[in-house]
Here is the input.
Amino acid sequence: MTLEINDEFPEQQVKKEAIKLGIYLGILSLVIGIVSMFVLAATTNFTVTSALLTGFTVLFSIGISAYFAIQLRKTAGGFWTFSQALKSIVIMFTISVVLSSVGTAIFNVVMPEQQQIIFDKTINFMIESLESAGASDDVIDKQVADLEKARDESREFSIGRLVKGLGVNLIVYFVFALILAAILKREKPMFLKVDNAGDAAHPWQENN
Here is the structure.
């Protein structure tokens, strides 16, 4: 027996879920980013701690994003096309990126000390790395000057810098959304086969 499947995609329901999960993802990203800044500012081994935090953040972001995307597919009824998946995941990522980026910018304005300490540690680490690699003083001075300029600019809130950062992050997350949509797409079949126990012959019927 076959049953025809309803081909209607619950767009509004999925959109609402994407917005909700995007808020959750943005808050998680913001909290992880702020905690990471405090940890990096307090650590005595900047290199190792930075590498560990970066690895954890990347793996966690990939894992939780994939999990939320799967939840979106469940909201869609278990089936969605590539374009439906991409649109839903992009909505979720856009909400997340805007929320976490704006939240981080506000935090850096309210509590700039943490970011300044991290910039100073980054400068010291870069000087040590370049000196170990045998770089010339001119190269080191230029790199240090660029970082000090970025540090000084970060002390003041800038709409242009925020928009630029948002643009870069949105491009990165759009590529990630393409990958997730390609992996998680599941086309809905036109018909679904269903075993009908009532159609099966009973033992006494088979003997007749």
Observations:
- Helices lie at 11-42, 46-75, 82-110, 113-132, 137-154, 159-184, 203-206.
